[in-house]
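Support request, please re-run this one:
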Amino acid sequence: MHAVLLAYGKPCPVSDLFGVSGRELLARLALPEPWCGNVQASLRLIDELDREIDNCESELRRLGADHRYVPLLLTIPGIGWVLAYTIAAELGDIDRFASPRKLAGYTGLCPRVYQSGETDRRGPLAKQGPKYLRWALVEAAVHAGTHPAYRERYQRTKARVGKQRGAKVAQVDLARRLAEAIWHMLTRNQPFAPAGATDPLAA
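Re-run finished. Output below.
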């Protein structure tokens, strides 16, 4: 759907193309067929998947899938109930991690380091640790990149790396930052506090 907008030179001024404002924008476009039909079919598919996700969440709640960390995790930008429960379940007891760096390392979102003498090279992500934890943090980072607490850092990293890899590298960088923020939040039993707050948990 974003590709359709680009093909017709239509700007996308909204952050969520599939939210209320985004759908109003799509309704005003008056695209010719078959593109109009493709957009409508895509929206129906999104609505159906959203209904299935809502049903899954309701069933999990009914079965008692709950965790003491979930309410705190829900205060983080980009994290909804499913991601919060996934992160909580994969982390276990936060006291297992002595520092935020230990937690970030556990996620597998840190690059491999190759050192020999005076040589220090950084390779691809280690991708060790729970893959679902890594997935949840990166998924949250995609949305957190639009939040005021992280938008500037995300855009700066994206611009520095370049168009080809910038967005992906910036998302992984934010995912690591979220992991560090989570460590502070859970060890202090405090909700997310954006940068500049009295007691910022994610600078």
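The first strand starts at residue 111 and ends at 116. Strands lie at 111-116, 119-125.
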